[in-house]
Design goal:
heterodimer; A: alpha/beta; Beta Polymerase, domain 2; Rossmann fold; 4-stranded antiparallel beta sheet; B: 272 residues; 2 domains; 9 helices
């Protein structure tokens, strides 16, 4: 009995094809049942996310080309796909299948390397198969090891370190300046999508209060309503007055000139008794004059600065890949050895 | 083991501080990315040997070992090292050791100069009030020293954040707000201890014919006390910016370290 993988992902197939082969969650148990009844597999887990559709299976058959051709045929027929298929579908037999499973669990095969969402998705896929009794000794062991390896990689390497999006970089910056965001208020200038995302990221870290201001008060109120409790609005002409209370300002208006410059901020900083102020300018063209960062206790980051942080983190994650692959190779070898031992013990 | 004196013990402690300094350079080059214990353990080894050295000297003297410039300096360093070990246990404060070790090492080398300890372990003065005077003042210097270290960490973080250096995010240092708070608290504690120590000193019996108010050490101590008071008042009441406050704390401690030995030497009251 060996573990095999067949599937397609963001690396091999465009989104149009991925969505064509996606499994609805409630249809997965039936699909696994059909595969088992066909005699192709004895155990199976289907992982279906927006970036990948994969079948992890344990089979008593020899995992050769003929075997994979039959599974491909099943997939094509199951999804009633009548188009051409080339290299979009990949197949792995042991040990590469286990290597792939461990990589997926650790987020090494994800679009954003090191992301953790896939870990939860894989766990959910496994739980679904387990609850419908589609897993057995082989896949149970492989998946448990995969989850352990993912946790090990997370703690032993820097693969998940740092913010790889502009919004999370902004939050990380805030946490480097202020001890607890729960004691600080945020002013959001402009009610666009980026403002909303950044405000949500800050909100998720527990900021005390968010105040929204926009040239159109209706849009400000709509965003405040979207953000929910603890969010208020102020008229656009009054936002400078908020600077006495707030410690973080996120600006993304459509203004063509600077809405905040040094001359405007200097007296405001005096009024706030020079408390640290984090300014996040995600507007293009920029809302805040770069000269304000010459003021003491003012920390200004624009969208390029945040993007540079995210890119640098991504680069660091890529540098960690070799270390992660080494760990995975070791763990796969150990699992195969353990499987060999239990197979020998079982045959005696 | 009679040949193994308290000075040998202190020499070993300084060697540990030296190792910690070398390791600190390595941590600094790596951008303080790993929250680890090696430097903490090196410094803890140094402080343990340092404590042993002071205990040996104290047992020989049958009093608190703060009788000459060597003892005063080692006491100051011990207070600084011990406070650093305690504060380093706070989350994300382990790197305090990397900033403290160079101070302990360089001042430790200075303390080992034989001229600072001319008579070895022989008591040069006695009395509870004298011990209280010397011990609290030296502890206050330890607090000021640690405040300067925290202020240094604050300025480094502020510079990195201001100039968009990735090290600000990658390093496992505390937030700027926390560093600022710790710096203020240490200066306040140091100031309180200095006030107690100076008050105890003022109550000590005066020697006839020896000037008190014009004594170099008394004048210097009064000036240091005023300088720290000004720093605290300007920051807390008159809104001095955190960068200026932190810079002031570092400058004041540097002045304290550089002039401590000289004023002690010039003081008639402290050389009788």
């Amino acid at each position: 009995m060996s573990v095999v993988v067949i599937g397609l992902s963001h690396r091999s197939a465009p989104v149009e094809l991925r969505e064509r082969f996606a499994f609805a969650e409630n249809k997965i148990p039936d699909a696994l049942k059909q595969l088992s009844e066909s005699g192709l597999i004895t155990e199976g887990v289907v992982l279906s996310t927006c970036n990948r559709v994969e079948i992890y299976a344990a089979t008593a058959l020899s995992p050769d080309d003929a075997f994979f051709a039959r599974v491909k045929k099943f997939l094509v027929e199951h999804h009633a796909y009548d188009g051409e298929l080339g290299d979009e579908l990949y197949t792995f037999a042991e040990p590469h299948s286990l290597h792939h499973l461990f990589k997926v669990a650790a987020g090494l095969d994800s679009m954003v390397i090191g992301e953790t969402e896939i870990f939860g998705q894989l766990k959910k896929a496994y739980d679904l198969a387990f609850s419908h009794k589609h897993t057995g000794a082989r896949l149970n062991k492989a998946f448990q090891r995969a989850f352990n390896v993912a946790k090990h990689i997370r703690t032993e390497t820097n693969i998940q370190r740092g913010s790889v999006s502009v919004m999370s970089a902004a939050v990380e910056l805030a946490e480097k300046i202020f001890t607890s965001l729960a004691e600080h208020e945020v002013l959001v200038i402009g009610a666009g999508e980026t403002s909303e995302k950044t405000a949500r990221a800050l909100q998720s870290r527990g900021v005390r209060k968010i105040t929204v201001t926009n040239r159109s008060p209706e849009r400000a109120m709509a965003l405040a309503a979207e953000l929910g409790a603890g969010t208020t609005t102020v008229p656009f002409e009054n936002w400078p007055e908020e600077f006495e209370r707030i410690d973080i300002a996120v600006s993304s208006t459509a203004a063509t000139t600077h809405i905040l410059d040094r001359a405007k901020l200097e007296p405001l900083m005096k009024r706030r008794k020079h408390r640290p102020l984090l300014l996040i300018d995600i507007a293009v063209p920029r809302d805040i004059d770069p000269a304000v960062s010459e003021l003491d206790n003012v920390y200004l980051y624009n969208v390029d600065d945040l993007k540079a942080i995210a890119d640098e983190y991504l680069k660091l994650r890529h540098e960690e890949l070799d270390r992660c692959n080494e760990i995975i190779s070791e763990k796969v070898a150990a699992l195969l050895e353990a499987n060999k031992f239990s197979a020998t013990a079982g045959s005696k | 083991m009679a040949w193994f004196t308290d000075r040998h013990c202190f020499l070993l402690a300084v060697m540990f501080y030296g190792l910690s300094t070398v390791y600190s350079v390595f941590l600094w080059r790596k951008g303080f990315r790993r929250d680890e214990w090696v430097n903490y353990l090196l410094l803890a080894g140094g402080v343990a040997l340092h404590t042993l050295a002071m205990a040996k000297r104290g047992m020989t003297l049958h009093s608190c070992p703060v009788n000459n410039l060597y003892e005063a300096t080692t006491f100051l360093l011990w207070a600084l090292g011990l406070a650093c070990l305690i504060y380093s246990l706070l989350p994300r404060f382990k790197f305090l050791t990397a900033f403290t070790a160079p101070v302990l090492f360089t001042v430790g080398i200075f303390a080992l100069m034989p001229s600072l300890d001319p008579h070895g372990s022989k008591p040069e003065f006695s009395g509870a009030l004298r011990s209280l005077h010397a011990a609290t003042i030296l502890q206050s210097y330890g607090a000021f020293g640690l405040a300067a270290v925290a202020a240094g960490m604050f300025l480094m973080q502020q510079h990195d954040l201001k100039f968009h250096k990735l090290r600000a995010l990658l390093s496992l240092l505390p937030s700027m707000q926390r560093l600022e708070f710790i710096t203020f608290r240490l200066v306040a504690v140091g100031f309180a201890l200095l006030t107690i120590g100076l008050t105890a000193g003022a109550w000590l019996p005066r020697h006839e014919g020896k000037p008190y108010l014009s004594d170099a050490k008394v004048l210097w101590s009064a000036l240091m006390w005023l300088a720290y008071l000004e720093s605290l008042v300007a920051y807390k009441i008159f809104g001095r910016t955190s960068r200026r406050f932190a810079t002031g704390v570092i400058v004041l401690f540097a002045i304290l370290l550089l002039t401590f030995g000289i004023t002690n030497h010039l003081s008639v009251l402290h050389n009788q």
